[in-house]
Every structure is written in C-alpha cells, then in structure tokens.
UniProtKB/TrEMBL annotation:
Localization, UniProt: Cell outer membrane
Signal peptide interval: 1-35
SUPFAM superfamilies linked to this entry: Porins
Annotated keywords: Cell outer membrane, Ion transport, Iron, Iron transport, Membrane, Receptor, Signal, TonB box, Transmembrane, Transmembrane beta strand, Transport
Name under which the protein is recorded: TonB-dependent receptor
Primary localization: membrane
Protein's UniProt keywords contain Transmembrane helix: no
Organism (species): Alteromonas marina
Residue ranges of every copy of the TonB-dependent receptor-like beta-barrel domain listed in the record: 286-719
Residue ranges of every copy of the TonB-dependent receptor plug domain listed in the record: 61-170
Length: 754
C-alpha cells in the first residue's frame, strides 16, 4: 500500500498549480481557525446531517462506513442537477453516462467497481435506491434532483443491509415526505445552450391525518452537434428534453401508524449522445482496408468530414439519431410503531421502464454497423422490516426482501452488422430473496459494536437469439451466499468517532451481454452443412452461460466528526478484495459485436477524506480520494480497472456577504478533478483507450432579500468549457470515443417559496 508521502507526491504531480494552491488552503485555513480566540456561540456553526444508511436514523458521524451526504436544498448551489453531477464531488466516485448512447443513462463506479453496459443480462456493481426502492436498470436513472431531502453515497460493499448489486457501494436518494406544512416552491432556470428548466413543488395538509406533496418538472437543453447526413432528424446530437412528475400521499391516523403512497413518472426524449469513431488509428482490414459489407475503405474523414465539428454525427441512419426513455413507478411505505421498542415497516414497489437508443458504430453515412435498440423491464420488490430495541443498550434491524425483474432487449428490425442483417434478442427473469439482521450494542457510553448477516438466493432464467438458423438458446442458473459485517465505534473525549469495519458483499453471476460467440460455435459444429447437428452441438455446450457469483471483502478503518466548532472531517482507509469479478471485453467477431466476461481477482486499497470548514460567513468543502487497484495477471496480460481514476478531488469555497437591511449575497465556486483512467480493462498504449484527466469549475452567485421571499442567482457550470471523454472502447476494427455532453453553461436561476 502506498504511504502518505506517496499520496502527497501523486496529488502534487496530478493537479494544476491553481488547483493545488486551492487544495492547500484547506489545512492552512483550519490552522488559522484553531489559533483564533473566538467565543463559540450557543448554536453550532453547522449541523450534522442525519442519515439512514444503516436503515436506522443516525448522525452521519455514528455510521461505521465511509459515507458522503448531500442536503437536498443545497444541491443547486453546488451545480448538482442530476446523479452525474454527484459523481464530481464524492471521493473515489466516477459517474459516466454511455449505455446505448443514451443521454439519460447513469453508470456509477465506486472504488473501481461499476458497469458500463445496460443490457438485461448485466447488473451494476453500485446500486441506486429511491426511498428504499432499488432501481434495477441504468438507462433513465439520471434523475433530475428536484425537491430531494438528501442524497447518501455509501462507499464499499453493502452486502448486509443493501444486498442487491452493492459490491462497490450504494446511492440512496431520499425525497421529501408529505407533512402538515402548507408550502409551494417554484424553481426556474434559463441559460445558454437553450437551457429551460422549471420545477413546481406543492406540499399541503388535507386534514389532520392526511397530507400530500407533488412535484412537476420540465428540463430542456440544446445539443452540441448536428446530424449532418440526416437533415430531418428530430433532435440534435446531445439534445435533451425531460418531463417528470411525482405525487405522494401520507396518511397518519395516529402517532403510531403512517402510510405513504407515491407514484412517479418521467418521459425523456433527445438526440444520441455525442461520440466519434477513430478508424485510421486502428487500420483494420475490414474498415480501413475496405473488406466490409459495403466494400468501401473508411477513414476518419468519413466520420468527421473536413469543416465538420467533432460533435457532429455523420450517420445516415435516422433510426439511431433519437433516444427516449419512459419510467413509471408506484410504491407504498407503511410504518407501525408496535410499542415504544419496536417498529414494523413495509416497502412495496412496482416499476416499469422502457427505452429506445442504439449506436451507428461506423459513424458514417454507410449502412455498415448500426444497432438501433429497444429495451424494457418490469420489476416488483417487497421489503418487510422490523427494528427496535432489545434493551437500553442494544438495538437491531431485521428484514425479509423479495425482488423480481423481467426484461428484454431487441435489435434486428433496422440494424445491420457488416452491411447485413443483425439480430439480438435477450430475455431474462431474475428472482432474488433475502433475509437479514443487523444488531448494535453499546458496551460503554463510548464504545459500541455491531454485526450483521444476510442470506441471499438469486435465480436467473435467460435466453438469447443472435442467429435465426440457430434459434433461441436458453439457460438458467442460481446462486446463494451469506454475507456478513462486524464493526466497532469509539467516541473520543473530543467527540470525534473512530470506527473499524470488516464487511462482505455479494453479487450473482451474469450471462454474456452480446453472445455472438454462438454463431462461431454453430459454424464450427458444421453450420448449414448439418443444421440439426450444429444446433444440437451448440445447445449441448454453448457459450451462453453465466459467470460465478462475485464476492467482496472490505477492511476499513476511519475517523470522523467535529474537530472543533469550525472544522469537521471524515477520513477512511480501506482494502477491498474481490473474487470472480467480471470485466466486460468487447470486440468485433465474425458473427457480430461480441461482449464476453473476463473474470478476475481485484484488490482496491486507498484513502478518502471529506472535510468542511466554517468560520463566520465563510465555508469550505473539500473531498479527496486516492486509490491503488491491483488486478490479478491473466495469462501474461495485466488488466486494469476500467473507468477508475486513482485520484479524485473536489473543493467548494463559499462566502455570504451580509448587506444593509438584512439582504445577502452568497458567492460559491466548486472545483472537481478526476485523474486519467482507461476506458477498458487494459492500459496497453497500443489500445489507445486512455482518458485524459479533467478539471471542472462551477460558480453560483445568489441574492436573497431580507424577507427570504425569493432567491435569484447567476450560475456557471463547467465555466472553462472542459471537453473530455466519457469512455473509449477499442473493438479491433475501430475505437469508439464517447464524448462528454457537459459543455459550459451560464444562466439565471430563480426560486421562491410561499
């Protein structure tokens, strides 16, 4: 493991001089604050956030895991409008958005664990929950974060309390629950790049026992390029338009019983995400040499003609120019305080989602490799929970969990591979059942211990059809695992908390996403010369099989809390070991765009720190993460964790000017840094999939009158217009270079509450 000196050298070498100077002000300012002889006021400078990461309310300092929390009312001040933005300010978190070329996809990577794909046979390594409901699919998850109570980012395996696909971590989104207060909030934004955003939130008490709230949102932003060979394209490249709504009804007939029914929906439309294709750099026979289905040698100039912008798209296929997603959800949360010691809770949910997307992989006007795609998924989940106190020193959380998902992906009606017809039909049903318990016991006033167990059983029934002569291939598999956690917390005399945790995580195995290897097996077994024999041979021993279950064990120590009235900090040091972890490896085979699983053992180790300094009207937020990922050698090949920077940094200073008469002006800047990384599981220079580091800067200047009637703000996001790659993928014939959709934006934000 690298020493602190190594980390300091790495930090200094990777950051620009300006960023490094800003980073160094944090400890300097802290030292000045300690030296000041200022009497502490009765009210603390800032209030610790209460979180539910352990499925019980706790002050964030008491939770024995690494966690970052965001106050929902302050997200806009920081330039956070969706989950992709959250990924800019959490240590060792990187959020990309590429799946199927969709603009609303979100792919979080925490501590080297994540998933770039989206097909139904794949599962992410980082789970996303909304009000306790797990979201199974990644397309359409880039939520517009309006009227959110808070966001919690849990880092490290969460296999005891969050069993579904949480080997890297979990993201909890908690919305505002209805109450008896009567309030209406209106938020609007108008900015460059055609930004129009409007949000309405209403909370109202209907009676002494019934309350409701409602949120309606519209969000539109123009694109960054044009479809130069499809003049009738409905949307530009990267254009987005989203309409969403959420209604919650709360019934609380007594202090002991409450029920919240929530319905939500969103519709998103737009243009294909920006990307380009590098052909000359690979020089393959099929593309560069013209040995392809259209018989034309291809060059980079066919993708980006002279005079065109890299953000323009040269496809001639209208079917891939537009993307869309729809989601509908219904959830019911019931809580019953059985007595003073025990509370029962039920969270039941049903969700449906569908999308249209796809890429033209050759990126040219020719109908060579283009894959318009449609997908849908239906999920049902039920969680029964009991928590409470065994005695005055011991509390617990226990529960039963059920999850079922049926989904499909389709290509074929208007898709091509090598100029000919292409077929991909995937179907999968997943059923997951689990039981868990977590107990915490106070040994003394200062020392507590906790532990948990979870048993999970997963079953998957999947099918794939990639070649009509072969037909549909079916397979089933099941996995089960016991995951566990032990932890201890100690509160020091100064109020700081130290913790040590050992926790395990589990994820079920996965079927291949694009099993075009089946076509090679078909022809290898005789093909059309013996169709029945080839079919039988493939079905008896085919490549459409699932990987083993994935396990993770995390060892972590940390310290968190308030150093003094002005400075709080959270530091974690971790070492996580993963076994049977599948890396996706995509290449062009004779049968199609094949995606296989490279199964590896990986160790992630590193350090993370979150800190906040507040002195008078000035505050400074900072977070830093440094990580070293070691992947076991594979037959002389040394893989790397994809889309995983070794260094992440965020800094956010803020100052509030108090004007005569009680008016105020708040000035805030936010800086985010992500080090270089690789778009696929290799660092070989000849693969050309290295992604450069990126530095993003936001600002927000807000005016609020003395009566708090409204706030008007000037904002800037990515003010230096940093353009960066979200991903790179080398298929052997070409390199897909996925461009960011994150250009600079300046505008005005207005909010009022009455």
């Amino acid at each position: 493991m690298k020493t602190n000196t190594d980390v300091s050298k790495a930090l200094a070498s990777k950051l620009s001089p300006v960023a490094l100077a800003v980073a160094m002000t944090v400890p300097a300012i802290s030292n000045i604050a300690v030296a000041q002889e200022v009497e502490a006021t009765e009210e603390q400078q800032f209030e610790a956030i209460t979180v539910t990461a352990t499925k019980r309310p706790q002050v964030i300092y008491e939770v024995p895991i690494a966690i970052s929390a965001f106050d929902g009312d302050k997200l806009a001040d920081q330039g956070i409008t969706d989950l992709t933005d959250v990924g800019k300010f959490v240590p060792n978190l990187n959020v990309t958005g590429f799946s199927a070329g969709h603009t609303s996809s979100v792919n979080p990577f925490i501590r080297g664990i994540g998933l770039q794909d989206h097909l139904i046979t794949t599962d992410p390594g980082v789970s996303v929950y909304v009000d306790g409901v797990y979201l199974g699919r990644q397309v359409g998850q880039n939520w517009s974060l309006n009227n959110i109570e808070r966001i919690e980012v849990l880092r490290g395996p969460q296999g005891t309390l969050y069993g579904r696909n949480s080997i890297g971590g979990a993201i909890n989104i908690i919305t505002k629950e209805p109450d008896q207060g009567d309030v209406t909030k209106i938020n609007t934004e108008f900015g460059t790049r055609g930004r129009v955003k409007a949000d309405l939130f209403v909370n109202h008490g209907l009676s002494e026992t019934v309350a409701f709230n409602m949120n309606l949102s519209f969000n539109k932003r123009d694109g960054l390029g044009e479809f130069i060979n499809v003049p009738n394209a409905e949307y530009d490249v990267g254009e987005t338009e989203d309409v969403s709504g959420r209604v919650s009804l709360k019934w609380e007939p007594s202090n002991d019983f409450r029920m919240v029914l929530t319905a939500d929906a969103n519709n998103g439309d737009g243009g294909l995400r920006p990307y380009t294709v590098l052909i000359d750099e690979v020089g393959s026979d099929r593309y560069f040499g013209g040995q392809n289905g259209v018989g034309v040698p291809l060059r980079n100039t066919d993708v980006t003609p002279e005079g065109a912008d890299i953000y323009d798209n040269a496809t001639g296929t209208e079917a891939v120019t537009g993307v869309s997603n729809e989601a509908r959800g219904l959830s019911l949360t019931t809580e019953w305080d059985i007595n003073e010691d025990y509370t029962a809770k039920v969270v039941a949910s049903q969700r449906t989602s569908k999308y249209k997307a796809g890429l033209d992989d050759d990126g040219t006007i020719y109908s060579l490799d283009q894959f318009p795609e449609r997908g849908e998924a239906d999920q049902t989940s039920i969680e029964l929970q009991l928590n409470g106190y065994i005695n005055e020193y011991t509390d617990f959380v226990a529960g039963l969990y059920y999850f079922n998902e049926e989904g499909s992906n389709r290509q074929g009606d208007d898709s091509n591979f090598d100029g000919g017809p292409n077929l991909l039909a995937l179907d999968q049903e997943t059923t997951s059942k689990a039981a868990y318990v977590n107990v915490r016991h106070d040994l003394t006033d200062e020392l507590s211990v906790s532990g948990g167990l979870r048993y999970t059983k997963d079953e998957k029934d999947a099918s794939a059809n990639v070649f009509s002569a072969l037909g549909t291939i079916y397979d089933s598999n099941d996995w089960d695992e016991v995951t566990w956690e032990v932890a201890t917390n100690y509160t020091f005399e100064n109020g700081m908390t130290g913790y040590a945790t050992i926790q395990s995580g589990y994820q079920s195995g996965q079927f291949p996403a694009r099993p075009y290897c089946l076509i090679g097996q078909f022809f290898g077994a005789g093909g059309f010369d013996d169709i029945e024999g080839a079919q039988a041979a493939v079905r008896a021993n085919n490549c459409f099989t699932a990987s083993d279950n994935i396990t993770a064990t995390n060892y972590e120590v940390g310290i968190k809390g308030r150093v003094n009235d002005y400075f709080d900090i959270s530091v974690a040091v971790f070492n996580t070991e993963f076994e049977d972890l599948p890396y996706q490896v995509s290449r062009v085979s004779e049968g199609g765009f094949d995606t296989a699983n490279l199964v590896v053992e990986q160790t992630s180790r590193g350090v993370e720190a979150d800190a906040t300094f507040t002195y008078g009207n000035f505050s400074m937020m900072t977070s830093v993460g440094y990580m070293d990922v070691d992947v076991e050698e594979q037959d002389g090949f040394n893989p790397v964790a994809p889309l995983t920077p070794d260094l992440t940094l965020a800094i956010g200073p803020q100052y509030t000017f108090e004007l005569d008469g009680g008016d105020s002006i708040r000035v805030r800047a936010d800086y985010s840094y992500r080090a270089e990384m690789y778009g696929e599981p290799t660092s070989a220079p000849e693969r050309m999939t290295k992604l450069d580091s990126r530095e993003l800067v936001n600002f927000d200047i807000a005016y609020t009158p003395a009566n708090d009637a409204y706030t008007v703000a000037l904002y800037g996001r990515n003010i230096f217009d940093e353009r960066y790659d979200n991903a790179r993928l080398n298929t052997g014939d070409y390199i897909l270079q996925i461009l960011s959709n994150d250009a600079s934006e300046f505008g005005v934000r207005f909010s009022t509450e009455f």
